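From the pipeline queue, job 12 of 40. The input is one protein chain; the requested action is below.

Action: predict structure.
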Amino acid sequence: MKSLVEWPIERLKGLKAVLCDIDDTLTWEGHLPAVAYQALERLREAGLIVVPITGRPGGWCDHIARMWPVDGVVGENGAFYFCYDVKARRMIRRYWRSDAERSGDAEKLGAIKRQVLAEVPGAAVASDQSYREADLAIDFCEDVKPLPKKHVARIVEIFEEAGAIAKVSSIHVNGWFGDYDKLAMTARMFDEVFSIDIDREAETITFAGDSPNDVPMFAHFPDAVGVANVLEFEDQLASRPRWVTEACGGFGFAELADRIITAKG
């Protein structure tokens, strides 16, 4: 991973879109710094498409799509995207799985939840679970005392033994049923909403993230960025971002925004 200052100006000038994780990428120590929120607004004002790509729940994503300075949001690790049409005053909601599939998934995730809580000391259902539409989030350090790595690994095993996909973020283990992830739903959103093929135009899009559940995005976008705290997970990343910020979390994201906006003049 290289410093942002080494990112060629001409490549920065060619960027059309900035994607970003939320937890510990826009936020830091559980809070959203003003400079990070302002960075989103400044990037949009500079003409870029701005889309958070997060593991956070549907309830949060509805609020983000309506009220943040963004062009939409991909939530629950790719379960859906939401875009708010300001002129029509209408929320566009697109899910990967059908209503019937999500209902069946909820029953299976309920069984996984009971097993995790019975087997893994200190684990808890994430505080935002009641706002979720498609996945199960198990908290291992947000509102509980940080769990040992072996306990986090066991949570992942329980999901996978039940046939679910499990991804580790900086605070939760998220699990779901379905063949989607952050990248798959991002591709669908960009095709349907912006008429952009993210395979053909990967070099015009950057993604900023911080943890293992961002690996599909790091792998796809050649100019992906890790905020400085990504280094804590370096040994767990099958694919690493090309660039890394000096600062952590939202302060690092603001650093990235400054670099892009300066390059674009």
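Job complete. The first strand starts at residue 2 and ends at 3.
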